[in-house]
Structure formats: structure tokens, C-alpha cells
């Protein structure tokens, strides 16, 4: 009995570490199951988890349509939000991973940025996205796991 408990704990731990901890996940899905491709059509929509889920780098993604799922499969990197989906403003100013509000976003230079709340997006725009993006990039590189 004790051995089976240890095996179960080991398998659970191995599965947990296999996930990409740099991605923001909640409720078992990347950014709460919002469709990352739909943002590029200026829409924040939840994906259909029952029909259009896809595992990428150990993390579940959900899509609202089969077309969006196929677009993601073809060019995944293009649709991934900056900083693992964490708040871009917090990454720039605090150097920390802060959960996003999936309804608050911006597409800039072909990249998706998510924000913790509307005020974060407003501050991002007022303080200068180019300067803040450079700082966020530096902070993100310090936080991401080294391989």
C-alpha cells in the first residue's frame, strides 16, 4: 500500500514538473481557456474546451473555432502572449508574474500583451510601451527557467 502511494506521488510530481511553469494557467487551461488566436481579431473570447482543446508544451489551450485551433497548430509561437500570458505592465514595473484579466489586452507590433486590469493597460500606454517592453523583456529573461 505504501509503495503504491509513493508511485502515485512520484507520477503526480513528474506530471506537474512537465508542465511549462512559465505559462499562466488557471482552471487547468492557459489564460483560463481564452482563445489566443481570437485576440488577433480584436476579440477576447473563451474557447470551447469540450470541442477545441489542444495541448502545447504540456499546457492545455482552448479555441473558439476549429479554424483558430488549426491556425495555432500551424504557427503557435505567433499567437502566444508575451511573458507567458502574465501582465505585461507588472512584468515591466515589478519584474513579477501577475495574473492577467483575459478581457484586457493589446496587440502591439504583432504581439499579444495581457494586463491584470484596465489601469495596467492605461499605465502601459501612458508610460510608453516601447520603454516598458524593453524592461519587461529584461525582467522576463531573469524569471524564466534556464535550460
Set down the secondary structure blueprint.
Elements: H1 2-18, E1 25-26, E2 29-30, E3 53-56, E4 59-62, H2 66-74, H3 76-79, H4 88-93, E5 101-108, E6 111-115, H5 118-127, H6 129-143
Antiparallel strand pairs: 1-2, 3-4, 5-6
Q: How big a fraction of the residues is strand?
A: 15-25%
- Number of E strands: 6
Averaged pLDDT: 88
Radius of gyration: 17 Å
Order of strands across the widest beta sheet?
1-2
Overall structural domain count: 2
Oligomer: single chain
Proportion of helical residues:
40-55%
Shape: globular
- With helices defined by DSSP (H or I, 4 residues minimum), what is the helix count? 6
* First-residue to last-residue Cα separation: 37 Å
Q: The biggest beta sheet, please?
A: 2 strands, antiparallel
In N-to-C order, the SSE pattern is HEEEEHHHEEHH
Q: Which residues form runs of ≥5 with pLDDT under 50?
A: 1-19
The structural class is alpha+beta
3D architecture notes:
The protein is of the alpha+beta class. The protein folds into two domains: 20-76, no CATH class; 81-147, no CATH class. Helix content is 41%, strand content 17%. It is built from six helices and six strands. It has helices at residues 2-18, 66-74, 76-79, 88-93, 118-127, 129-143; strands at 25-26, 29-30, 53-56, 59-62, 101-108, 111-115. The strands form three sheets. Strands 1-2 form a two-stranded antiparallel ribbon. β1 and β2 (29-30) form a beta hairpin. The chain is globular, with a radius of gyration of 17 Å. The protein starts with a helix and ends with a helix. The relative contact order is 0.13.
Amino acid at each position: 500500500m505504501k509503495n503504491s502511494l509513493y508511485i502515485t506521488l512520484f507520477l503526480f510530481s513528474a506530471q506537474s514538473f512537465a508542465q511549462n511553469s512559465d505559462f499562466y494557467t488557471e482552471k487547468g487551461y492557459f489564460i483560463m481557456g481564452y482563445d489566443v488566436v481570437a485576440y488577433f481579431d480584436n476579440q477576447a473570447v473563451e474557447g470551447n474546451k469540450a470541442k477545441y482543446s489542444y495541448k502545447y508544451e504540456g499546457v492545455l489551450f482552448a479555441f473558439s473555432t476549429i479554424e483558430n485551433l488549426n491556425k495555432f497548430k500551424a504557427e503557435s509561437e505567433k499567437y502566444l502572449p508575451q511573458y507567458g500570458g502574465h501582465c505585461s505592465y507588472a512584468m515591466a514595473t515589478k519584474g513579477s508574474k501577475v495574473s492577467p484579466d483575459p478581457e484586457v489586452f493589446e496587440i502591439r507590433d504583432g504581439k499579444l500583451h495581457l494586463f491584470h486590469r484596465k489601469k495596467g493597460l492605461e499605465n502601459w500606454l501612458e508610460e510608453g510601451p516601447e520603454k516598458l517592453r524593453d524592461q519587461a523583456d529584461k525582467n522576463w529573461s531573469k524569471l524564466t527557467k534556464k535550460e
